Amino acid sequence: MGFLSCGISKAGYLEKEAPRLEDWLNKNQNGQMSYMDNHFDTRLDPTLLVDDAKSVVSLLFNYYPKDFQGSESYKIAKYAYGEDYHHVVKDKLKELLFSIQSEIGEVAGRAFVDSAPILEKAWAAKSGLGWVGKNSNLLTQKVGSFYFIAELIIDLDLEYDYATTDHCGTCTACIDACPTEAIVAPYVVDGSKCISYFTIELKENIPDEMKGKFDDWAFGCDICQDVCPWNKFSKSHNEPLFSPNPNLLTMSKKEWTEITEETFRVVFKNSPLKRAKYKGIKRNIDFLQ
What we know:
Layout: E1 5-10, H1 17-26, H2 40-44, E2 55-62, E3 75-76, H3 85-104, E4 109-112, H4 120-126, E5 131-132, E6 138-139, E7 147-154, H5 173-177, E8 183-185, E9 188-189, H6 195-201, E10 217-219, H7 223-226, H8 246-250, H9 253-257, H10 261-267, H11 277-288
Parallel strand pairs: 3-10
Antiparallel strand pairs: 1-2, 2-7, 4-7, 5-6, 8-9
């Protein structure tokens, strides 16, 4: 089905993550992402999401592109080059669940792709798919970090995997490179300082003190991934639905500045950029000028 890898953990309460999540929320490092305050217990315990849950099946799906935007353009995060991953990956997850049911019989469960209160990186790390790095992304030695994380939570007892070890070592490349100093400590990202937060999640005007710090990022940001040494092992995906509209790769700054709502709808049909909407992208472009 195209997934990079799969790991399995016993469903249960994430005791180690509970104090970290509570501390992060208490420091308001979620900014205006108020939804992060909701469903605290559910985030930590998948058995509250799926009745009689026994296993969390974590999967990775590559999105590293073959072709990239031109250097004289406003930048968008690589995950947003193609169609919205929520739909693309979730369809594959449902297919996987159906194949499990076809093979084994009646198995109840739910598919999740960044769409429910689940600590996805924690489960992927617990399942041995990688470790959570200093930039708070899941990192994997063989393929870096340019992938989506998805889960099946099912009522089936399985053989469980084990966590891997941390391979960040003394490297601080991501911390040093972040222009807004959002990585406030190793393994801790203040979401309210992140360029992705400002360009996607924040609905009001971007604070003036951030002027000149965005390095031309108009939607999301890949800096802490681009500088990570493990991403030299990234290989391009082969998912047609993640291929960008050719116009995106050639758009100049002038074309971004002059983009009309009609062009936006055509170029970014079914794109993650629709989350920020035309109005949000225009705000971001205006801020970068």
